[in-house]
UniProtKB/TrEMBL annotation:
Function, in words: Plays a critical role in recombination and DNA repair. Helps process Holliday junction intermediates to mature products by catalyzing branch migration. Has replication fork regression activity, unwinds stalled or blocked replication forks to make a HJ that can be resolved. Has a DNA unwinding activity characteristic of a DNA helicase with 3'-5' polarity.
The EC number(s) this enzyme carries: 5.6.2.4
GO MF annotation: an example: hydrolase activity
InterPro entries: ATP-dep_DNA_helicase_RecG (IPR004609), DEAD/DEAH_box_helicase_dom (IPR011545), Helicase_ATP-bd (IPR014001), Helicase_C-like (IPR001650), NA-bd_OB-fold (IPR012340), P-loop_NTPase (IPR027417), RecG/Mfd (IPR047112), RecG_dom3_C (IPR045562)
Protein name: ATP-dependent DNA helicase RecG
Length: 692
């Protein structure tokens, strides 16, 4: 039923679940663009929070510009503008000057500027400052009229994640309409909780997060939204824990001598941390209760061999085991390594991934159902309806998999409550891990194998680039390979795909022709991504350029260089995980971090990576340095994919929300649901989407 409440003189005619097509100006074409951002309903739209804000400051002299910052300047054009075409890209450049110095201004695919910008034209521009060949440059700055500049001064303008064809202005306008016409009164968060934790009401939070009047109101709104995300997450976790914990297991196991033999056969000794975690898992599997354990270990700490031991023990007790990973390439790698390690014990592993032919899948299903297969390695294909297991007693999954409750329950029902091991390479302080993984027991592998050579790191600026290219060439001549993480370009509203292709071309021009350079980006089809990754694993590609985090956990022992552009835009925990893609073999590995940021704080932050290879230490140091004000722009981890909350930056709010959830959960359930009907409804909706 539509409400007819009045708000700001407008009739509120929108419902949360309405399609965004009810918003004026959103036709079929625009609707399809929003769908690319997973925005289908009005609620999706108002929960598409800004990924940052543009804070318009006073105009500064060119002489005070600092690379790595965003600034507003007023200049006169002092030379004839140039318009040229490079590989289908039109580039318009001109030189601006004020009393204190010169700056180069560059615009891409905006050839019409030649009609308005000439020698003598006076411009107010605002954009990111970089330094190229010792000159200051602003690329794709925003042109402002005097009036626009005055109106924007000292305000926070929302900046949204976009897709090609959808501008920031279009998203802002749609959200403005939704916030005006949607009835946002009513709050599912009990008033006593809002009072205790000093939280603004829901309506104010939504309005202020999108259109804050100042930094203080924005931070208040953000605190409320982050609290909500953690609070609902904690409540949902508690519900799961109640239904799952302390249940007797159908799959109680006995110890197996083959596991001791596998440890003997290894060409290296297990670390003390690995031995301790293996003892904990053995106690779980033989203890008679359903095991739910998180194994947390830094990149390269040796979690996979622990999983192999647990799977071997499962098989030797007459049961099946499954290991589910995010990508096909990784599934194939796990399949090959498990087959190699376990076939001597008579264990039969099979692979099940989406790209297999219908015939191959049918054969795999048959082997699984008849228990001809002992261990099944695969991707999401493992939980499809057609897969019928025979005594599935252990499921190993990967934290990065982020599969929802429904999918997880599908898996659990297939095995009639199997034991679960979750692997995580995200270094989270223990106090936070206990809250986030409240339904799991926690094991930590906190030392690296002695044979692993520490990665050599360096943070460099643009002047080092020729040396970096020569170094890559030298390593490739030795038979090694390299990853390059390309700069992110979301701000310029060009597609990441175009950017990575251009960047790859530039790299090819700077490296000798015998070096094979290929790229990966988020817009590629899964099949293409798999082909590229497989060629890289086989050594057919020498340099792999990628915009996003390189395929999780893929093992390429031959890769020895990780070069990261615009390193200051990543959280240190994320940089540390990227760095963990190299150094997996016997060769010395290197991580080259490019950063043109001249801010002292940025340099200090990146310097932490130079002095430590310990993920837990790096994450906590980063937290100390950055402080609560620096909340946007750098995601510490994609873990759990909260829309706004970040487990590192918002650790204190996480603790408060967890405490509040415990208070609610303690109360009599019937009374609670009567009293908090709105919360019950919100929790029900949330639990459908929650990622574990």
């Amino acid at each position: 039923m539509k409400t007819d409440l009045k708000s700001e003189g407008m009739e509120q005619t929108m419902e949360r679940k309405d399609s965004i097509s009810v918003i004026k100006g959103i036709g079929e074409k625009t609707q399809k663009l929003f769908a690319k951002l997973d925005i289908f309903t009005v609620e999706d739209l108002i929960e598409h929070y800004p990924r940052g804000y543009d804070e318009y400051e006073e105009i500064i002299p060119v002489g005070q510009l600092v690379s790595g910052t965003i600034a507003t300047i007023e200049v006169s054009i002092v030379a004839n503008p140039q318009l040229k075409k490079v590989r289908g890209l039109t580039i318009f450049t001109c030189r601006g000057r004020d009393y204190s110095g010169d700056v180069m201004l560059t615009w891409f695919n905006m050839p019409f500027l030649k009609n308005t910008i000439r020698i003598g034209t006076r411009l107010i521009v605002r954009g990111a400052v970089t330094r190229k060949n010792q000159s200051l440059v602003m690329e794709q700055p925003k042109l402002l009229s005097k009036e626009e500049y005055v109106n924007c001064l000292h305000t926070l303008q929302p900046v949204y994640s976009l897709t090609k064809g959808l501008s920031n202005h279009m998203v802002t306008k749609a959200i403005q309409t939704a916030v005006k016409e949607l009835d946002l009164t009513g709050d599912y968060l009990p008033s006593e909780i809002r009072k205790k934790y000093k939280l603004v009401d829901y309506k104010s939070a939504i309005k202020r997060i999108h259109f804050p009047t100042d930094k203080h109101t924005m931070l208040e709104a953000r605190k409320r939204i982050v609290f909500d995300e953690f609070f609902l997450f904690s409540l949902a976790m508690m519900q799961i824990k109640k239904t799952k914990n302390n249940k007797k297991s159908r799959y109680q196991m006995d110890l197996s001598e083959d596991c001791d033999q596998l440890i003997e056969n290894l060409p290296y000794d297990l670390t003390n941390a690995q031995k301790k975690v293996w003892q904990e898992i053995k106690a779980d599997l033989t203890g008679g209760m359903i095991a739910n354990r998180l194994i947390q270990g830094d990149v390269g700490s040796g979690k996979t061999i622990i999983a192999a031991l647990a799977l071997l023990m499962t098989v030797k007790n007459g049961y099946q085991g499954a290991i589910m990973v995010p990508t096909e390439v990784l599934a194939k790698q796990h399949y090959e390594s498990l087959t190699k390690e376990l076939s001597v014990f008579g264990v039969h592993c099979i692979l099940l991934v989406g790209s297999m032919t219908a015939k191959e899948k049918r054969e795999a299903y048959k082997k699984i159902q008849t228990h001809e297969a002992d261990i099944i390695v695969g991707t999401h294909a493992l939980i499809q309806e057609k897969v019928v297991y025979d005594k599935l007693a252990l499921v190993v999954t990967d934290e990065q998999h982020r599969f929802g409750v429904k999918q997880r329950e599908t898996f659990l029902s297939k095995g009639e409550n199997p034991h679960v091991l979750v692997m995580s390479a995200t270094p989270i302080p223990r106090t936070l891990a206990i809250i986030l993984y409240g339904d799991l027991d926690l094991s930590v592998i906190d030392e690296l194998p002695a044979t692993r050579l520490p990665i050599k790191n360096c943070v460099v600026n643009e002047s080092y680039r020729p040396n970096a290219y020569r170094f890559i060439e030298k390593e490739i001549k030795k038979g090694r390979q390299a990853y390059v993480i390309c700069p992110m370009v979301e701000e310029s509203e060009t597609m990441e795909a175009e950017n990575v292709i251009d960047y790859t071309e530039k790299l090819k021009q700077n490296l000798p022709p015998f070096i094979v350079v290929e790229y990966l980006h988020g817009k590629m089809k899964a099949k293409e991504k798999n082909e590229i990754m497989e060629r890289f694993v086989r050594g057919e590609i020498h340099v792999l350029v990628s915009t996003t985090v390189v395929e999780v956990g893929v093992n390429v022992p031959n890769a020895t260089i990780m070069m990261i552009e615009n390193a200051e835009r990543f959280g240190l925990a994320q940089l540390h995980q990227l760095r963990g893609r190299v150094g997996r073999g016997e060769y010395q590995s290197y991580c080259i971090l490019f950063s043109n940021a001249e801010k002292k704080e940025t340099k200090e932050r990146l310097d932490i990576l130079n002095h430590s290879n310990d993920g837990f230490y790096i994450a906590s140091e980063d937290l100390k340095l950055r402080g609560p004000g620096d909340l946007f722009g750098i995601r510490q981890s994609g873990m759990l994919e909260f829309k706004m909350a970040d487990v590192f930056n918002d650790a204190e709010i996480l603790k408060d929300a967890s405490e509040a959830a415990k208070e609610i959960a303690k109360k009599d359930v019937r009374l609670m649901l009567k009293k908090y009907v709105a919360l019950k409804e919100k929790l029900h909706l949330y639990a459908e989407d929650i990622y574990l």
